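Cross-check.
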Amino acid sequence: MKEFTLQAPCKINLSLDICGLLPNGYHEMDMVMQTVSLCDTLTLSRTELPGLSMSCSNPNLSCDDSNICIRCAKAFFRESGKEPSVHIHLEKRIPMMAGLGGGSADGAAVLCGLNRLDETHLSCEELCRIGFTIGADIPFCIKGGTQRAQGAGELLSAVPKLPENLWILIAKPKFPVSTKLAFQGFDQQENPSHADVEGMLAALETGEVQQIADKLSNVFEPFCRPEEIGAIKKIMLSHGAAGALMSGSGSAVFALFEQKQQAEACAHALAEMVEQVDLARPLSTGIYDLCE
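Predicted model, tokenized:
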């Protein structure tokens, strides 16, 4: 195989809680995460000369060793023992600094794609182990679907799926949010609130959209520019969304709709207010299975 193209779907957080600090200094997370169909596209191509190179459709994204794709590729080749002769091209559609795990999805796609391109036959668990050394969300992006993520995000357990008939509207505001600053903001709280993760799991068990929507919760949301986030949520709910929430550390906001027409009307209403708006569907698999 000389070239392999694959999709890198992003994620949303149906529930996000921070339980404390782990001995290694990472925050202890408890989250319910969902893969959705808003994707970047990566093409991995063999090159005649040895080496590792990258290009990207977004000129604002660096393609050097600071890029998670390059870091994941180097980690993969260290593990496989092979010499790289690969060019990575990234078509970027997932908004950056949005809490959607776009970078983690791209890194996960590189690991899974190289595994296929080089016919290395590393298992899903082996790729997750490599990916976690680069980013805490990469194992989830590899496995995907609907998962509870604990520890620093690497301890994954499959949970009841989000109903597949939902439409998920994702709006990226005109401002980014730094993940580092979001964690700092949470840490500075004296009495932080907590998300009802168990309640979300119980709601997913019922399969009832409104029960799931009622349990959407993210401990970052109250101090990540809540007025602007709240204004977007208000428009979403006024257009018939069952529920709306900021994803991850922000700034993207998503809403759950049962009717496509309502979601499309909401997207139109938000178009001038936000930087990017996309309509997506829940996915039941992650990048590893998409490569098979």
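The domain at 167-280 is CATH 3.30.70.890 (Alpha-Beta Plaits). The first strand starts at residue 3 and ends at 21. Passed to J.P. for a second look.
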